[in-house]
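Section 5.1 Outputs to date
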Amino acid sequence: MKKAALVIIVVGTAATLVVRAAIQGKGSSAREVERIRVARADIGAVVKASGVVKLPLGAEVRVGAQVPGLVKRLRVGIGDVVVEGQPLAEIEVVDLEARRAQAQAALRSALADLTFATADLARKRHLAQDRVLAASELEVAERAFDLAEAAAAEARANLAYARTRVGQARIVAPIGGVVAQVAIRQGETVTAGPTATSLLTIMDHEKLEVWAYVDETDIGRVQLGQQARFSVDAYPGQEFQGRIVAIYPKPEIRDNVVNYVAVVRFSPPRQQTLRPEMTASIRIALAAREQVLAVPRRAIRRVNGRTFVLCPRADKIVRRFVTTGSRDETSWEILAGLHEGEPVLVGEVAPDRITDD
């Protein structure tokens, strides 16, 4: 048994020396070359991209005042979690309440006039049927009724408006989320209107998404619905999963490189808090191919636009042209040109020692 083992070692060493000698050549130093065999493997191609955690449209709301006045009470601060409809601040409403009371009184007066006009019109219509009332007097009663009815409708609208203004002095959260900014203090006077400064900003962290900046050479392989995984520096070693929901048609030029934005939507993690503008590293999974012939990516070489590998044969190294398919980070699929179990070389080989197959 010991002799047989010794023979195997010698033969293996001799074969290695033959290949190494062919690679080395005269007067050159030995280069590290690895001999591997074509084997079947699963090719899971991915597209790598850098990106940023973003707030989508509608996930950040700036809240302003709809009525001017003194801030009587401020109920929240930066970092507070709020729900939709929760009170945020209250504005002094003494004048608005006075206007509401005035509108209520005006409505009572208008309703009283309408009641009288209704009864008067009914009497005069009865008299007109008995032909004891002139037609002109009936017309006057009908006109008085119409005016009283319109005045009552106007008074109702004024009261509804006054009540709305009083309600607008109570600022509530339009969405649920986290208070990101507070620009007022209790006791300050605020203005209202389209040009007024926002008082608070609320962000909904439940609606975050990731913008993946995909290189123009890879964007053709990215499609809607593909799975994507990403990581952020705040939580090293952890990946979050999502999927591609949009690909923006307009390019983004970053550092003189053309990129396209692929939007990754994901469910918010429960244990970690992701925040807008965090830098993300994204891996977009392409279609996977199972148990295909594959070689390491370092074994693939090119010359004049053609792809080949180097195969050891006896005391020489031959160039074998191949057809490649899918690829991932470590392997490249071989569609034609090699068979399972054939040896190929990985590493630097002296060009003058290579011959065509």
